[in-house]
C-alpha cells in the first residue's frame, strides 16, 4: 500500500521550451550574495528516505519547497530491485498529481541505513535491509529515473537537513545523534560532513562508556552503547526490571512509552531513564572532547524524547571542562532525512545546470 500527499499550485511545469527563457532570466538575476540563482519553477528534485519498514519519497522545487510526499511499506520485500521500482512509482505519482512533466526532474538523492560509500554511490552493508550488500544504489537510481543521483547514509542525510533548515542551521561544528532502534551520528566539522576512511564515521552504537557492556560486539549484534540505550536496549532494561522486581506492569511498552512513564512518576521507568541519560551524557561528552563541536542535535524516535533530553542535560552539567556540550532536539523531526535528501539532490541539480540553486 502506498500513500501520497501533494501541494498543488506552488510550481508550474518547466517544459524544455520554457527552460531557455527561464535560464535567460536566471542569468540576469543575482541573490544578495551576488550568486546567480535558479528560479523555483526551473525544475524539480526528489528526495528519498529508505527505511527498514517504510520508504518515503518527496518532490520539491528548486527553492527546496516540498510539493508532495509519497510513502510505501517495505515490510513485504526490501530487495534493491523492489525498492527501486517503488521509488519510480512514487516519483511518477508525485509528478502526475502535481501536473508536472517527467522532464522537469533534474536530480534525485536517497538516504539508506548502514555503511554507505557516498563517493561510489554504494550501500556497502546494512542489517536493516535484507539482501543489501554492495548495492550500487546511485547507478540504479540514475538508470531508473534518468537523472543524476546521489546516495548517502540516512543519519548523515538527516544531519544535512538539520544543517540546512533545522536546529543546526548554519552551525559549522555539530553532531546529529539518531537514537531509534539503533544509534548513529552524523558529524559536521568545519562546515563539512565527515565520512571517515571506510565511510563508518559516526557508528557510535559501538562505543564503550561507563555503564555499558565491556564485551566487544559480535557480528550482527548491537554495539555496546546501542545495546543499552537504543530502542530495543531500553525495552530490555524494562523487561529485566519487571522480572527482577516482580512488579506487575505492562511488558509490551515501547522505548518512548517507558520514558514517558518516567516523566509521569513511575519509579521503575525513572530508574531506567536516569541510567540511560547518564550513559548518553558520557557518550556526548566524550564525542565533544574529540570534535570540540558546539551542538548536539537529538533525533530519532527515542532521541526526540523530552524526558531523555532533560535528564541528559542534567548529567552534562557536571562536565564543564573545556566546554559543556549543548543539547537540543531536532526541529525537523521525522522529515530530517527527507529534507537532507532534497538538499543533496539540489546540489546535484546545481552541478548539472552549472548555477547555484536557491533555498
Describe the structure using short key phrases:
Nucleotidyltransferase, domain 5, 21% strand, alpha/beta, 359 residues, six-stranded mixed sheet, five-stranded mixed sheet
CATH superfamily of the largest domain: ATPase, nucleotide binding domain
Which regions have little confidence, pLDDT < 50, spanning 5+ residues? 7-15
Radius of gyration: 22 Å
Rounded to the nearest angstrom, the distance between the terminal CA atoms is: 32 Å
Query: How would you spell out the order of helices and strands?
Result: EHEEEHEEEEHEHEEEHHHHEHHEH
The total tally of domains equals 2
Strand-helix topology:
Elements: E1 2-6, H1 16-26, E2 44-50, E3 54-61, E4 66-73, H2 80-97, E5 105-112, E6 115-117, E7 122-125, E8 133-135, H3 137-145, E9 149-153, H4 154-165, E10 174-179, E11 183-189, E12 192-193, H5 226-229, H6 231-245, H7 255-263, H8 267-291, E13 295-299, H9 300-303, H10 306-316, E14 326-329, H11 336-353
Parallel strand pairs: 2-5, 5-9, 10-13, 13-14
Antiparallel strand pairs: 1-4, 2-3, 3-4, 6-7, 7-8, 10-11, 11-12
Helix pairs in contact: 2-3, 4-11, 6-8, 7-8, 8-10
Amino acid at each position: 500500500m502506498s500513500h501520497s500527499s501533494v501541494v498543488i499550485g506552488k510550481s508550474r511545469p518547466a517544459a524544455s521550451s520554457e527552460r531557455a527563457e527561464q535560464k535567460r532570466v536566471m542569468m540576469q538575476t543575482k541573490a544578495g550574495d551576488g550568486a546567480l540563482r535558479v528560479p523555483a519553477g526551473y525544475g524539480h528534485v526528489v528526495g528519498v528516505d529508505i527505511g527498514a519498514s517504510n520508504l518515503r519519497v518527496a518532490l520539491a522545487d528548486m527553492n527546496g519547497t516540498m510539493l508532495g510526499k509519497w510513502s510505501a511499506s517495505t515490510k513485504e520485500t526490501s530487495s534493491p530491485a523492489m525498492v527501486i521500482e517503488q521509488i519510480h512509482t512514487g516519483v511518477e505519482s508525485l509528478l502526475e498529481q502535481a501536473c508536472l512533466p517527467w522532464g522537469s526532474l533534474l536530480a534525485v538523492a536517497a538516504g539508506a541505513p548502514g555503511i554507505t560509500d557516498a563517493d561510489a554511490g554504494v550501500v556497502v552493508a546494512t542489517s536493516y535491509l535484507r539482501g543489501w550488500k554492495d548495492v550500487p544504489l546511485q547507478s540504479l537510481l540514475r538508470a531508473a529515473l534518468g537523472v543524476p543521483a546521489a546516495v548517502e547514509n540516512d543519519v548523515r542525510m538527516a544531519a544535512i537537513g538539520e544543517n540546512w533548515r533545522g536546529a543546526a542551521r548554519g552551525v559549522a561544528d555539530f553532531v546529529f545523534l539518531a537514537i531509534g532502534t539503533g544509534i548513529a551520528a552524523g558529524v559536521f566539522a568545519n562546515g563539512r560532513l565527515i565520512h571517515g576512511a571506510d565511510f563508518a564515521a559516526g557508528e557510535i552504537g559501538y562505543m564503550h562508556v561507563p555503564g555499558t557492556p565491556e564485551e566487544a560486539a559480535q557480528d550482527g549484534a548491537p554495539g555496546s552503547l546501542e545495546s543499552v540505550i537504543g530502542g530495543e536496549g531500553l525495552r530490555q532494561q524494562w523487561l529485566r526490571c519487571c522480572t527482577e522486581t516482580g512488579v506487575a506492569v505492562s511488558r509490551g511498552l515501547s522505548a518512548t512509552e517507558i520514558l514517558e512513564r518516567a516523566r509521569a512518576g513511575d519509579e521503575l521507568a525513572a530508574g531506567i531513564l536516569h541510567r540511560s541519560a547518564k550513559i548518553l551524557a558520557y557518550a556526548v561528552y566524550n564525542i565533544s572532547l574529540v570534535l570540540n563541536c558546539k551542538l548536539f542535535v537529538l533525533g530519532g524516535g527515542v532521541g526526540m524524547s523530552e524526558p531523555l533530553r532533560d535528564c541528559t542535560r542534567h548529567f552534562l552539567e557536571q562536565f564543564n571542562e573545556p566546554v559543556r556540550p549543548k543539547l537540543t532536539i531536532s526541529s525537523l523531526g521525522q522529515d530530517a532525512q527527507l529534507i537532507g535528501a532534497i538538499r543533496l539532490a539540489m546540489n546535484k541539480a546545481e552541478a548539472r545546470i552549472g548555477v547555484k540553486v536557491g533555498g
